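Name: SDR family mycofactocin-dependent oxidoreductase
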Amino acid sequence: MSEFSGKVALVTGGAKGQGRNHALALAEAGARVGIVDVCRQFDSCAPMGTEEDLRTTEAMLKERGAECFAMVGDTRSSSDMRRFVDTARERWGSVDVFVANAGVAAFGPVAEMTDDMWDDVVGANLTGVATSIRAVVPVMKEQRSGRIIATSSSVAREGGPNNANYAASKWGVIGFVKSLAIELAPLGVTVNALAPMSVSTDMCHNDKTYRLFRPDLADPTEDDVRDTFASLNPMRVPWLELEDVTAGLHYLASESGRYVTGASLDIAGGWNAYHSA
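Structure predicted for SDR family mycofactocin-dependent oxidoreductase:
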């Protein structure tokens, strides 16, 4: 498949998880791909990508024959994000698809939430998304074309215990996407969000999250939490696989999605049916 042949795609949070899968799929579809990741662990958060993970993704891209580059950078830093976008433009002349995927999670009740838990999650998931997208907007405005896709979440419009910082940050992403979509629509640039439920990544599969879902057990396993996760949506799916989310990304980034903008695409086993709208 070469639907994105000659296109340039940039992915934040590309070291592993959804970001890695998005980058590989875009490369397999013919795109030239740049990835960036902060490559350090925030103490308050679920496991994050490392520089070794980033280099592994870069090697996987090269194995697929893709023109690519990888860099360490913080999505909350305007200078890092300008450097990321400028590198792609200097190498390849344009940026056609920008995936603001980087995000973190630090779960816990509000009464026990530390400043770091709030600042790290809102900083990465909302400020980081906005800062990274702000770096690419001037390029796409000049081109009068482009696709911007940000990662939100099903929990954004639903809320949930132990999730206030995460839900607030992902709600903010939807508001940012809708506002920017209106600004850029006359220029032929689309801006959308993906809103998946839990995805089978380290953000979901870790001891702390398992204990939150099964506080009745001292050391719960994946099998112990499966039914609890599945109870959150009417299709009774515990979590998505990476390719489920990437399929949504592919649609929004492709020619098929050329008239879709300001949307939040639910990929959630029907969880979104519980929303008021």
